[in-house]
Amino acid sequence: MLSTICCCVLPLLVLLGPAHGGPGVADVRAWLIENENTLWGADQYDFAIVLPASGTECIWHFAHRGGRFYLNYMVQWVTGVANDRQLSVTVNAPSGLLVSTADDATKQINFQAQESGFYQMCFSNFHNRFGSMQIFLNFGVYYEGKEEQQKQKEEQQKQLNDTLSTIEGSSKRLQLYVFHMWRFYNFARMSKGKDYYVLLANWRYVTWWSAAQSVVILAAGYLQLFFLKRLFHSRTGAKDSRPCC
């Protein structure tokens, strides 16, 4: 990914070089090396990450002003002694201003970008100090108002008839609806994955506790029989030796 970022940034350095007061090549390369988790290009991302105990992971994503920035996350599984499914999440604007926070195992964050730049998403596992957790992420940016403005400009330039304009508008609205359906489908898939891990954990819990209780019951029965036999003793050497208490 670092090579792709360099290919996107280096042409800008030619236009915005030292003559225009732009940053140098060394500065840009140093910034890219420090921010390996910066995401460019696509507007939607869908993947999972694993946070170690008391670990923090930050991701940057570019958004233009006026776009709708959304972030959906879900804690799928947690390991360790003290299992705590809470996850601390913060979203910061390019200027460093705190935009949104969350402290839960599942959350949907949605807001309108007020400035253009890279928005920072940080995920902290400080609640769970003795175990790691896996998080499923689904985030991106979509532009509703920008598409409407582009649609009006295209209509004025091309001077199309009403039928073609209606078909074009309907297709764009359909594309937007399909995109939102895809978002909700991803969230439903995250919920299904969470239910699977919860069911697996419950199955292990019931199996181990059932085995442990069975061992305790057998041991208690054996000890009870052993002590009852110790309460009775028989006289040796007598003709009518009967067990006496």
From TrEMBL:
Organism: Scleropages formosus (Asian bonytongue)
Signal sequence interval, chain numbering: 1-21
Keywords: Endoplasmic reticulum, Membrane, Signal, Transmembrane, Transmembrane helix
Homology family: Belongs to the EMP24/GP25L family.
Domain annotation GOLD: ranges: 56-141
Domain of life: Eukaryota
Membrane topology note: Single-pass type I membrane protein
Principal location: endoplasmic reticulum
TM regions (residue ranges): 208-228
GO cellular component: endoplasmic reticulum membrane
Protein's recorded name: Transmembrane p24 trafficking protein 6
Pfam families referenced in this protein's UniProt entry, alphabetically: EMP24_GP25L
